[in-house]
Amino acid sequence: MSRTRVIGLGQALAGDDSVGLAVIEELRERGPFAEVELVCLTDVSALLEQLCDVDTAWVVDAVDLRERVGEVVELGLSELDARASCSASSHGLDAAQAIALCRELFPTRIAKRVRVLGIGIDVSLLALRAPASGNGAAANSRSLSPRVARGAEHARELILDTLVSVNPQPQSEIPSHA
Amino acid sequence: MSKVIQVDYLARVEGEGALRMTFDGNRAERVELNIFEPPRFFEGFLRGRSALETPDLTARICGICPVAYQMSACSAVENGLGMQLPAALRDLRRLLYCGEWIESHVLHVFMLHLPDFLGKQSALEAAKEHGDRIRLGLRVKKAGNAIVRVLGGREIHPINVRIGGFYKLPTRAELRTLLPELEWAKQAMLEALEWLASLPCPQLERDYEFVALRGDGRYPFCEERLISNKGLDISVAEYELHFEETHVAHSTALHSQLRARGSYVCGPLARFNLNFDVLCEAARSAAERIGLIPPVNNPFKGLLVRSIEVIQTLDEAVRIIEHYEPIAQAALEVVPRAATGYGCTEAPRGALYHRYRFDDEAAISEAKIVPPTSQNQSSIEDDLRALAPRLVDLDDAGATWLAEQAIRNYDPCISCSTHFLKMERIRR
Question: Which residues have CB under 8 Å from B185's CB, separation 6+?
Answer without folding.
Answer: B102, B139, B140, B143, B314
